What does this fold into?
Amino acid sequence: MPVELVFVAAATLFASATLTLAVRRAALARGLLDVPNARSSHSVPTPRGGGLAIVLAATGGFLALYALHALPTRLLVALCGGGIAVAAVGFVDDRGELPARIRIAVHIAAAIWAVIWLGGLPALRTGSSVMELGWTGYVLAVLGVVWTLNLFNFMDGIDGIAASEAIIVSAGGGSLMLSAGLSPQVPAAALVFAAACSGFLPWNWPRARIFMGDVGSGYLGYTIAVLAIAATRDSPVFAWVWLLLGGAFFVDATVTLARRILRGEQPHVAHRSHAYQWLARRWGSHRPVTLAVIAVNMLWLLPSAWLAANYPPFALWILAGAFAPLIIVAIAAGAGRQERPAQ
It folds into this structure.
């Protein structure tokens, strides 16, 4: 990758770390603290809203790439337009709970914005053939963006887990695209995004000195979904590659949601029944759970994604083989299990 792109990534990382410190000081000065309650996974009041630093640093990095002619207009507009809208509604929600209908309306509008600018969900690799989806691809892409940005919100419940997941998914996806000889435009954006998350992570690592908040978690999910769609336009197999990379979050969030809905619970009601939340309580700490998720990503999902990228006809089989044990582990760990008052 050209030296100037590495410089943009390094500057983005520094900006993110510096901005996180500034946001933390501002939150402390204004008393913007996340006070523990019965649904919390933390025990001491902690500043929130640190994800704003990621949003600002990443946006600056994307604009720098565009100025260097390393990012196409369509991808820039998709990333920044919808991303800022998602971050803005999260920012407001962090300071006073918004009605769910307003949040979801903004999420859907942002997803439609991104999908239109990217030209819909492109063809997908299915075995040895490539399937064109037509208008169905637009619907699936919108649903995929909305689900991804919300699942990052669901999964951002313990220290360090969401930022580290975003780093591995984006850096891994970008690296696999480069190794496949694809256009460097999406990898450049993915590297800058990973750098923005990396600048924030030390402040959020257990025990966290600041939380990401909805301003950051929704933005992370949105950006990853946009990058994944853009990557799939370069190569049909990369829909499965990016899905594999995010498998830890997708499996836990999806299994939890499915079991809660089957039990008749409202999906938007706050809870602590994700597998990672059960494990954090069982193990008595956030750190080992976050490290375990990182290990699963690096030792299981990243190699699986590499196999899918290099053997496209077998990508769906690889995804099924990689996800099957994760589903079993998630259920065994408690994903979606009904909570008891004393737990």
Notes: The beta strands are 33-34, 46-47, 124-126, 129-131. The first strand starts at residue 33 and ends at 34. Residues 3-33+45-246 form one domain.
